Amino acid sequence: MTIDFWSLGLQAVNVLILVWLLSRVFWRPVATAIKNRQETANALLSDAQTAKTNAETALAELTAAREGIAAERDTMLDETKKASERAANSVLANAHKKAEALIEEAKLSNARETNALRVELTSHASLLAVDIAQKLLTRLNTPVVQSAFLGLLVEAIGQLSAQDRQALMEAEHAIEVISAIELDEEDKATLTQAVGQALGRTPALTFQTDPELVAGVEIHTPHFALHNSWQSDLAKIIQALSHAV
User: Fold this and answer.
1) What count of other Cβ atoms lies within 10 Å of the Cβ of residue 218?
2) pLDDT tens digits for 182-207?
3) 152 in Cβ contact with 227 (< 8 Å)
4) Which of 17, 29, 139, 238 ranks highest by number of CB atoms within 10 Å?
5) What does DSSP say about strands 224-226 and 217-221: parallel, antiparallel, or unpaired?
6) Euclidean distance between CA atoms 237 and 137, whole angstroms
7) Is 214 left (phi over 0), alpha (psi -120 to 50) or beta?
8) Angle 40-41-45 from CA coordinates, rounded to 5°
9) What contacts 68, CB < 8 A, 6 or more positions away?
10) Where are the domains of the chain?
11) Transmembrane region positions (predicted)?
12) Which helix (H) or strand (E) holds 210?
């Protein structure tokens, strides 16, 4: 077999020319296009990654915001609940205080009314008892009782204090002797003598009767009185009972 080197050389030249043409005309534009496509794809991938990152960041921020809103809502609900409980407790405490005040006021009012009623009943009972005693004592108003009161008055005149004696001396011409029943001349003389001894001179006495005394003999002046009767004793009893209520 004979090898035609010229033909082989021409074919080799043709191949080289074809490779050169392909590399110049076809392969470089295709490579450039592929490179551009790759760069575009990389840019798109980069943009997509950036968008994904931004989306993830936005999602995280949104999630955090939602969690913050939820936490804030829970806080607000908790504060509202606590405020409502405080308000309810305050209203309940005020209502309790008002109820206690009303109960206490009712107790005080009831106590005052009870005390007032007790005082009134005691006063009525005291007056009734004194009235009954006065009526009973009126029946005992005898000369013997009158003589006893006369003796007590004479004794009281002898025991007058300096101040009372001075008051009696200043009213020398206005001394009244008041008795439950009319005194006889002997009793009048006895009293005149007793007052005279107290004053150091014989006085001018005026004698009157007053059944309201029940029994007894008293001396009255414009500024002095020497009480000595059952009426005076009953008045003291009423006063003592009133203070004891």
Assistant:
1) 21
2) 888 998 888 888 888 888 887 778 89
3) no
4) 238
5) antiparallel
6) 14
7) left
8) 115
9) none
10) 59-139, 142-244
11) 6-27
12) none
Q: What's the CA gap between 117 and 245, in Å, rounded?
A: 11
At 30 the pLDDT is 65
Two tokens, residue 234: 């009953």
Q: CB neighbours (10 Å) of residue 229? A: 23
Which residues, in sequence order, are bridge partners of residue 217? 179
Distance CA 150, CA 148 (A): 5
Residue at token pair 């205080």: 97
Is residue 196 within 8 A of residue 160, CB to CB? The reply is no
Tokens, residue 1: 């077999």
The CATH topology of domain 142-244 is hypothetical protein PF0899 fold (3.30.2320)
CA 138 remoteness from chain centre: 56
Residue type at position 127: L
What string of DSSP letters covers 42-90? Answer: HHHHHHHHHHHHHHHHHHHHHHHHHHHHHHHHHHHHHHHHHHHHHHHHH
Query: For the chain, first and last CA: distance in Å?
Result: 166
Q: What's the token pair of residue 80?
A: 């509202």
Residue 218 main-chain phi, psi, to 5 deg: -130, 160
**Is there a contact between 178 and 191 (Cβ–Cβ < 8 Å)?**
no
The per-residue pLDDT for range 215-237, each reduced to its tens digit, is 888 989 888 888 888 888 888 88
pTM: predicted TM-score of the whole model, two decimal places: 0.45
Interval 67-90: pLDDT, tens:
777 777 778 778 877 877 787 788
Q: Which residue has the tokens 């004793």?
A: 233
N residues, the chain = 245
